[in-house]
């Protein structure tokens, strides 16, 4: 592949499906740039929790905002999901994501609407999913490992709430692109899931 030719890998799916881990592994394997687009919305959500208007937060988002504070808390995740349902917020972040996706040398983006809205012309598309129970268990283990106080039932309820909000929103609902390869990680270890994703991308390289 020419080092200047755009090649976009779009990885969509619900929270804690493994798409971020897979996205980073794919980017590393092929030397592509990687963007966790959920971080954009988490950064907006973080600013909202600090009292900023969500639309203004999205319109003025800077690269350094992606490293501000702890963007991985459950509270920030809920604020991010609510902000993501606002059409003006999504519009404000659209150009940033599209420019990143078509940069020279290849890019991997993971999120909820990469293959359907952000880069429908992406050369490789994956929809990574897992059962809500499996995803809640993964997220619960992650949160407890970080010292957060929560319960599995609380995390499962949070996962189901976010799934419903992401899938039912009027603007860019979460769904697989028609030409995306479905990768269910419910019963896969991460190495197997990554290997399958790499095979999909490799088959589409020029």
Description:
The protein is of the alpha/beta class and 206 residues long. The protein has one domain: P-loop containing nucleotide triphosphate hydrolases (Rossmann fold, 3-Layer(aba) Sandwich), CATH 3.40.50.300. The chain is built from 9 helices and 5 strands. The protein has a 5-stranded parallel beta sheet with strand order 2-3-1-4-5, sandwiched between helices. Helix 1 packs across helix 9, helix 2 crosses helix 4 and helix 7 crosses helix 8. 43% of the residues are buried.
Q: Which features does this protein show?
A:
single chain; globular; 206 residues; alpha/beta
- How would you classify the helix and strand content by structural class? alpha/beta
Shape: globular
Beta content comes to 5-15%
What is the C-level CATH assignment? Alpha Beta
Rounded mean pLDDT score: 92
The poorly predicted ranges are: none
Short description:
The chain has 206 residues and is an alpha/beta fold. The protein has helices spanning 19-30, 37-49, 54-59, 74-84, 87-101, 114-118, 132-145, 152-168, 190-204; strands spanning 8-12, 33-36, 107-111, 124-129, 181-184.
Topology (elements, then pairings):
Layout (H helix, E strand, L loop, with lengths): L7 E5 L6 H12 L2 E4 H13 L4 H6 L14 H11 L2 H15 L5 E5 L2 H5 L5 E6 L2 H14 L6 H17 L12 E4 L5 H15 L2
Parallel strand pairs: 1-3, 1-4, 2-3, 4-5
